[in-house]
Amino acid sequence: MSTRQDSPRIGHGFDLHRLALPADGGRPLVIGGVRFEHEHGPVARSDGDVLLHAVTDALLGAIGEPDIGQLFPDSKPEHEGQDSAEYVAAAMFRVRDAGYLVGNLDATVILERPMLGPRKLEIRENLQAMLGTDAVNVKGKTHEGVDAVGRGAAIEAHAVVLLLRSTGN
Prior knowledge:
alpha+beta; globular
């Protein structure tokens, strides 16, 4: 089976982090590079930005590269508290090196609190700058009180990215 090298590529990314108080290992809550004032934060080796982790995996998946956990393993001490924007930058380097650019990103963040609405534009603008496209959509959803996310004990994100062959401009 062959694939055309100039074909668009689609990638999907998903991430989930448990939320906890700082005393229980929770970091400050950062979503899409935007810090939220909230009593609970992600339990993670890096900064725990669930949206940027999902975006990184979507980018890497679209070009058939290893996932975020393989490229930036939790076991490496240098990833302690690392800014997840660095993961997106590394994935974008690989995307460009493979001859692609981002056509668009559609992402969904699922959490009970805080509400994303007041900060969605800020998140969207961060992602546009990181990905080099204005075709970015971010949605916020809840789990209506169902499961760990619905109880406010976790946060998750999904991201779908379309890559287009770069024309070299």
